[in-house]
Amino acid sequence: MRRLFEVAMRIIEGLAIKEAVKELFIKLNYSPVSLENVVFADSGMDSFEKQLAEIIDENRKMAKTEKRPLCQDCGVAQVFVKMGKNVTFSDSPSLEILINKGVEEAYSEGLLRKSTVADPFERKNEGKNLPAFIHYELCDGDTFEICGIAKGGGSENVSAQKMLVPAVGREGVAEFVFETLKNAGGKGCPPYFVGVGVGGTFDSVAVLAKKALLEQVCEDKELLEMINEKIKDLGFGVLGFPGICPVKAVYVKKAPTHIAMMPAAVALNCHSFRTGRVEL
Predict the structure, then answer these.
(1) Which among 44, 179, 253, 278 would be 20 to 30 A from 21, CA to CA?
(2) CA 206, CA 198: separation in Å to the nearest integer?
């Protein structure tokens, strides 16, 4: 006997997707949810480092109040889409078109600096901050979620990826994180938010590290403890000056990998930690 199953598809208006992306990236640059409860100034700092941290805290408050960007580098737009199999959309042949239009309008209407060049060698800036760098994840049900990162060039430049051998274990990964932070110094505007990805493949591990930043999770407490212990020996603090606070938080995500591999990636984010999500 044949059974017929009727699945109700949820249709999301393309205009709603575009507007959601626009509002998300405007808010990311003025008052991101990822910084809502963050305070950089700490009583354990010496007077100079504490003064620098207080300036960063004040800058964040002014950006929110006056609707001015947290940083002059408004970053490239990175988008992570989680879409259920029972969801579809209208008004466009592809999600990519809707997302890119939302990003373009955000950077125009939000008065945000456009930092993306069309060619890595010719360096022509077309003034649109496009394309958005989009990652898709399919899932069951009718979920439709968009996560965004406005990632500046300074912290992206000092991020790193390495194919380690399995024998190095957690100690080797922790040492790689430490060396990445040590080499970064003040160039990426610390205190850093650190996303660590371990496992997967050469091409996927960097995305895993970015997801660690987005989700703000730790999937390996032992590795986290090793990293936090090594951070104490970095010898710099806020903005790379001598101090005790080079890192604000560390997040870790893991993935299955090949028996002969230990891919690792460290995604550093500056103190202007701009991530957020919207669910439609």
Answers:
(1) 253
(2) 9
Look at the pTM and tell me if it is higher than 0.85.
yes
pLDDT score, position 7: 60
Residue 9: pLDDT band (50, 70, 90) is confident
CB 219 within 8 A of CB 278: no
- What is the 8-class DSSP label of residue 3? -
Residues 6+ apart with CB under 8 A from 67: 30
Other CB atoms within 10 A of residue 41 CB: 17
Q: Would you state the pLDDT for residue 157?
A: 98
Residue 185 and residue 240 in contact, taking contact as beta carbons nearer than 8 Å: yes
* Residues 231, 244: Cα–Cα separation, whole Å: 9
| Greatest extent of the chain over all pairs of C-alpha atoms, in Å | 79
Q: Which residues contact 268 (CB under 8 A, 6 or more apart)?
A: 155, 156, 158, 159, 180, 181, 184, 188, 192, 193, 194, 195
Cβ pair 114, 127 in contact under 8 A: yes
What Rg, from alpha-carbon coordinates, does the chain have?
20
Q: Which of 140, 136, 202 is nearest to 7 (CA)?
A: 140
